Amino acid sequence: MKVKAFLTLVLTGFFLSGAIAQTMSEEEIKERIMPVGKVKVAGAVDATAAPAGPRSGKDIYQAACTACHAVGVLGAPKTQVAADWQPRLDEKGFDQVWKNAVNGIGAMPAMGTCGDCSEDDIKSAIEYMIEGV
């Protein structure tokens, strides 16, 4: 008997919530199911934040490139190390190195790890990484 009463209660709840949802406007439903908070990770960049202005190659590098290019992960050329960059630049030229970064090459995905970069941003980051080479 308890099971029957429980099932009746649950089904009644479903029917009532469905009836209430049908009488609510779309805006009221959006308001009702809106998240109550956000998780922030220390040091993470807010993806919804509007850019404060143009970013420098160094800013882009520090946000998206440093994890691999600072230490040469999986053969990535290290930042401002001529022995890593010069052979690539001599063989392919800057434009091809840039196109490879935009399209991805080897273990590097297209646009590296910069989800909000333009092709010009990638160019700026490469220019920063080859300074002094």
Automatic annotation (TrEMBL):
Protein name: C-type cytochrome
Organism: Glaciecola siphonariae
Pfam families per the UniProt record, alphabetical: Cytochrome_CBB3 (PF13442)
SUPFAM superfamilies per the UniProt record, alphabetical: Cytochrome c
TM regions (residue ranges): none
Domain of life: Bacteria
UniProt domain Cytochrome c: residue ranges: 52-133
Swiss-Prot/TrEMBL keywords: Electron transport, Heme, Iron, Metal-binding, Signal, Transport
Transcription keyword on record: no
Gene3D superfamilies assigned: Cytochrome c-like domain
Signal sequence segment: 1-21
